[in-house]
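Forgive a beginner's question, but would it be possible to get a protein, spelled out as residues, together with the matching structure tokens, please?
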Amino acid sequence: MNKNAAGFIAKSTIKAPDLDHRRKINFNIGKYNAAVPKGQQQFTDLLSVREKAKNIKWRAMEQLDTLLEQFEKNITARGAKVLWAETAEQALAAIDAICQEKNCTTVVKSKSMVTEEIHLNHFLAAKGIESVETDLGEYIQQLDDEPPYHIVTPAMHKSKEDVAKLFADKLGVPSGLTPQEITQVARQKLREKYIAAQIGITGANFILPDIGGIALTENEGNARLTTAWPNTHIVIVGIEKVLPSVHDLPLFWPLLASFGTGQMVTVYNSIITGPRQPGEANGPEDMYVILLDNGRTNLLANTKTREALYCIRCGACLNACPVYKNIGGHSYDTTYSGPIGSVITPHLKGMKDYQHLSFASSLCGNCTQVCPVRINLHELLLENRHESVQEGNSSLAERLAWKAWKTASLHRGMMNTGSGALKTKMVQRLFKGWTTHRTPLQFSPKTFNEMWQQQQQPQ
């Protein structure tokens, strides 16, 4: 067992029986579950909408190279600079070069999972550059020196009492603040950072090739301030975020909002097509867009798992997953957790090191059921398992065990040999590790075949 799998098992073993954690998660996901059906009422035929969205993303991935080149051409024409990063290291080097050129000492960041993916905050801190998260949930996590717990609600695992205590400990404010007071404290602290920062960094929810722009959707206005105040705006975005046209946004913005938070549409929706133009009063002087691969072309090249790139990062599959709700987001120890993370991470970071995530699933199919773009997540988890075995990542003991099971299951006489108690004792002795995280195996006294034959005998 590799260290990643061992760490996952250790963390999930601690978190699963934590009743306080489960109470907080159930409370927050319960609020989500109550809101989402209301948001989805805006669609008269939700299934058709989801199918249309999937087809649009399919078309985008099939034409990804052409669309990305079109995006580069159109946004460059308006003064932006496009940089291509094959790896996280290349993306960090590009950001470092920009920061040095701009004599940057302070960066403000809007919520971006891609910057978490490349560990940008730690990189900038090592360079002596202050990087401040401006999304409230991300700001809370940064104060607590924790990564995001959830791809949409980063501090989902914290109660309002937890946050009040954290603010008192880290910022020296009075203890026991209300959520409204906590928000005011964060607003005051962050407004100072917006003014001081030389560079603002955001991700992008969507890339729009036909107009040469990026689309941002948010609820707090922090992305608008991040792109408006500093003189330089850096966008770092995964290459899969492409939509064929700006005219697809009237479908995808409400879809993302309703499945992500239960809203009809998110509060702030922005389209940015370059730096400040002549005659414009606001906006940055310079804009850079870093298009990040970092393993995404591995998924693109795999025709069976390519549809995982359709994901619009709504977080619905995390909220629906019984495994995620028990072990929490941090147990995965990856940027992207839950079902979608378990599907894409082995391809982004290596199947051998992260194959265990695809086995950490009940395969109940609830993730597929709730996905707004109808990604067959549970089938892709199975495909990952298959590819892992095909690559030779399974142990000798596991291969022998499955060979024995196959041999026995194909021979009825072997299946019917021995009592249920004998089979239970044999299996428990042979597979001692099975019950470490599972209830003990209990074979029935008779097989179904034996009971059927007995029923068919003349009375």
Observations:
- The mean pLDDT is 94.
- The CA atoms of residues 115 and 357 lie 22 Å apart.
- Residues 400-456 form one domain.
- The longest helix spans residues 19-40.
